[in-house]
């Protein structure tokens, strides 16, 4: 294990590390050997290092590391830089610049899985970990600076100088004087996954007993066909689903029907605003194959409609004559229509619990609990009229037992599950999952979860719904009970995952926390990610209703889900022309990747361009 130490003052820290088994130390400093040897204890530390086989290199500039090592010796497993400073009375701006160049230089000599350790005095880093936190502009902004070189802060802990044998800090204002390290912190950085920019994607699915291909809406390209619920998956959403199913199997005969569910659905959704739907338009002509599409041999005779301008005042899509569209389809926003269809099949068995699960897709406003895609599981059972309440209670009790069993294996924080009458909620109190389901069908109960940090009426607490329906089945005496659960929300609440986007990360450090599908309390590998704020203001087209859902969807798409907040902060209407101007504030932040100021500036410029073209707004 090769360890590189930079900016050593008297080499006492390097000497303390040198004895570790299996570690090869390369200790460096910025000054020449003559300057350093005159410092107290430096000569003794250098002698000890050389006796133990360590390399000692002088006059090393931390911003040009690759210049000092041959290509075959450039890969270090760990780089230490304790208390970096430009020297003398350099201010925060110069020290930020030093760190920025250092991180870029470190990226050229660090292994893929390597770590960069940077120790800073109390308050310098500018993170919430500092006990005496400075104002952001007066700190070194270390996490934002590191993000510019592709690093994320993965751990931070106190720098305890008293536990390091023989260590003595030195270098106060470029002199052989010690300085205060009480409250100092060691910041541990790792490489981030790069920001990904996905090409347009073609997806194949079963539709009306035939295979069709369609272009995936760009905002969903990285989320389609991820296979989280497949047999070989260790993803927590599958673990939650399997545990729920196993518990219910103890009380009901059970039948899985996932394999026959198409990603596309045709028909009319009652009481659902169509601006929340991902529309897919299929041409009546024969659809080319996926191979022809990928080889560029044929143009697609289908498309997705991200932002349909031809809508009425309620957001309903109008299809005009002459547009050559035979049928309209959309990505399924819920599995409930499929559950309804199952009850009409000849092989539908009363008393058997039918299970459907899979991802569903909905355009929605940006908020912590608003997911454009999540995994839903629906349980369907027909029972004799008059026994539906007993069936509901049995369903809920088994769901409660399974969730409590999962929770006890994860953590000790308090968890409560409650069945609440649908009439006890106002629409504004519901998260997007519950609000959308309530539009699809008349709901009798909401299934809510409460933890130590959330209440039953918190936006993220509603994880499921219960409803009943009367259909013309084998017997008119039968009532159908439906239970729908949001598996993503359940996994987040059980494992303490604070951000829904983390469920979709491509970083292997997420799934490694759930070996063999075991649920555990999630530990973030990207701490205190920097956030960036931009404003945008524009004139709304005359006579048109502003489509806020489309506006938020564009923000999701151009940023790759890096916008965590999009708030209207001002509106203005000219008295003479009646023209309306809106001003929104966007907050950019990543939960798993390094996000730099420059990357965000590019996203903001692209966002302005896209809303101008797609929503026909006039930028101010």
Plain-language structure description:
With 620 residues, this protein is of the alpha+beta class. The chain folds into three domains: 190 residues, 3-Layer(aba) Sandwich (Rossmann fold), CATH 3.40.50; 200 residues, Bira Bifunctional Protein, Domain 2 (BirA Bifunctional Protein, domain 2), CATH 3.30.930.10; 88 residues, 2-Layer Sandwich (Alpha-Beta Plaits). The chain is 23% helix and 26% strand. The protein contains 14 helices and 24 strands. The protein has a seven-stranded mixed β-sheet with strand order 3-2-1-4-5-7-6, sandwiched between helices. A seven-stranded mixed β-sheet has the order 10-15-16-20-19-18-17, sandwiched between helices. Strands 11-14-12-13 form a four-stranded antiparallel β-sheet, with no helix packed on it. β19 and β20 form a beta hairpin. The radius of gyration is 29 Å and the shape is globular. The two termini are 56 Å apart. About 6% of the residues have low confidence.
């Amino acid at each position: 294990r090769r360890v590189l130490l930079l900016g050593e003052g008297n080499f006492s820290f390097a000497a303390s590390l040198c004895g570790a088994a299996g570690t090869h130390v390369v200790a460096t400093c910025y000054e020449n050997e003559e300057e350093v040897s005159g410092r107290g204890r430096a000569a003794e530390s250098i002698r000890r290092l050389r006796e133990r086989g360590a390399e000692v290199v002088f006059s090393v500039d931390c911003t040009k590391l690759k210049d000092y090592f041959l290509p075959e010796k450039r890969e270090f497993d760990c780089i230490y830089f304790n208390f970096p400073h430009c020297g003398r009375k350099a201010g925060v701006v110069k020290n930020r610049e030093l760190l920025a160049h250092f991180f870029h230089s470190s990226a050229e000599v660090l292994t893929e899985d390597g770590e960069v350790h940077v120790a800073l005095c109390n308050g310098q880093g500018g993170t919430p970990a500092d006990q005496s936190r400075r104002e952001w502009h007066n700190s070194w902004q270390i996490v934002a600076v590191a993000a510019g070189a592709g690093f994320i802060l993965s751990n931070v802990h106190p720098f305890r100088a008293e536990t390091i044998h023989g260590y003595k800090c030195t270098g106060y204002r470029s002199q052989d004087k010690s300085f205060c390290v009480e409250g100092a912190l060691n910041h541990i950085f790792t490489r981030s996954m790069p920001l990904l920019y996905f090409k347009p994607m073609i997806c194949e699915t079963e539709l009306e007993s035939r295979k069709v291909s369609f272009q995936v809406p760009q905002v969903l390209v990285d989320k389609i066909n991820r296979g989280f619920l497949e047999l070989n998956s260790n993803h927590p959403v599958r673990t939650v689903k399997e545990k729920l199913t196993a518990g219910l199997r103890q009380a009901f005969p059970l039948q899985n029907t996932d394999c026959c569910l198409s990603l596309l659905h045709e028909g009319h959704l009652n009481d659902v605003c169509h601006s929340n739907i991902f529309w897919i338009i299929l041409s009546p002509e024969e659809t080319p194959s996926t191979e022809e599409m990928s080889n560029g041999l044929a143009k697609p005779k289908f498309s997705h409609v991200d932002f349909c301008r031809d809508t009425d005042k309620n957001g309903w899509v109008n299809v005009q004559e002459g547009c050559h569209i035979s049928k309209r389809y959309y990505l399924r926003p819920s599995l409930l229509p499929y559950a309804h269809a199952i009850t009409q099949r000849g092989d539908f068995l009363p008393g058997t619990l039918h299970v459907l699960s899979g991802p569903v897709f909905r355009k929605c406003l940006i908020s912590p609990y608003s997911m454009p895609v999540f995994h839903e599981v629906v349980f369907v059972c027909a029972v004799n009229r008059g026994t539906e309440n007993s069936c509901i209670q049995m369903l809920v009790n088994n769901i409660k037992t399974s969730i409590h069993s999962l929770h006890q294996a994860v953590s000790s924080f308090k968890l409560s599950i409650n069945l609440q009458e649908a009439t006890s909620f106002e629409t504004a109190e519901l998260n997007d999952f519950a609000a959308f389901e309530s539009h699809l069908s008349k709901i009798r109960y909401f299934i809510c979860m409460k933890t130590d940090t959330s209440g039953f009426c918190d936006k993220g607490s509603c994880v499921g719904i219960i409803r009943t329906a009367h259909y013309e089945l084998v017997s008119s005496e039968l009532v159908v009970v439906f239970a729908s659960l949001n598996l993503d929300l359940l996994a987040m609440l059980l494992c303490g995952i604070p951000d829904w986007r983390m469920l979709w990360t491509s970083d292997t450090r997420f799934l490694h926390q759930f070996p063999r599908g075991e649920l555990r309390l999630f530990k973030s590998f990207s701490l205190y990610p920097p956030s960036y704020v931009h404003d945008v203001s524009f004139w709304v087209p005359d006579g048109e209703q502003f489509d806020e859902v489309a506006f938020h969807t564009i923000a999701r798409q151009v940023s790759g889900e890096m916008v965590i907040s999009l708030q209207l902060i001002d509106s203005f209407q000219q008295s003479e022309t009646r023209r309306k101007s809106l001003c929104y504030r966007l907050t950019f932040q990543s939960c798993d990747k390094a996000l730099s100021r420059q990357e965000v500036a590019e996203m903001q410029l692209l966002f302005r361009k896209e809303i101008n073209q797609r929503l026909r707004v006039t930028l101010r």
